[in-house]
């Protein structure tokens, strides 16, 4: 039996449901929405490819290994937002100097996440679920939080919609990874437990609507772009992003 998630301050979080793969209705919604958005947003995709290629060079797409459903690794896709020579912590704060000017704009409006629609089509991810974690960090999670890796990660969800405020919590930390693992991961576990306890089609629709509002609100939110659990300094590109 999977361990019961523990919430902030030792408070027990809501019990998580037992995963049995996505029901056909959820998978159908994932495919229809992801495919529809890829077609609808294809001109924007082309523009972003040209923009990133012109400003930052190759590679345009950052590929990063994440922990997926059943603790199986998968390759996550994002538009590259960091300098190619960036090194340092696996995490990025809201004012990380490794992020390019163009990358900061993409992150602010979460446009760097759009290639993850391909991950949704492939079945690596779902539309709404826990945030996908980098393999490096996932292997260091507190044992009581490992239960999250039984579930399919989501393009959006409660943690993703707190990305700007969570990123700010890392600013100025002497050891941001230790703070993330000790303080923020239990918080994320509690938020994900609440989501998974009532993860219905109505919940999916509600989170999609909330995500649209969250992205649009970036136009007047001064806190900047979202957090990043990326792996900088890798031997291949993103090279530093989870991001």
Automatic annotation (TrEMBL):
Q: Which organism is it from?
A: Streptomyces capitiformicae
Q: Which residues cross the membrane?
A: 31-52
* Keyword Iron-sulfur annotated: no
GO MF entry, a single one: phosphotransferase activity, for other substituted phosphate groups
Domain (Bacterial sugar transferase): residue spans on this chain: 26-216
Name by which UniProt lists this protein: Sugar transferase
Q: Please provide the record's keywords in A-Z order.
A: Membrane, Transferase, Transmembrane, Transmembrane helix
Tell me the protein family, please. Belongs to the bacterial sugar transferase family.
- Coiled coil regions, renumbered to chain: none
Name the InterPro entries for this protein: Bact_transf
Q: Which Pfam families match?
A: Bac_transf (PF02397)
Q: Which PANTHER family match?
A: COLANIC BIOSYNTHESIS UDP-GLUCOSE LIPID CARRIER TRANSFERASE, UNDECAPRENYL-PHOSPHATE N-ACETYLGALACTOSAMINYL 1-PHOSPHATE TRANSFERASE-RELATED
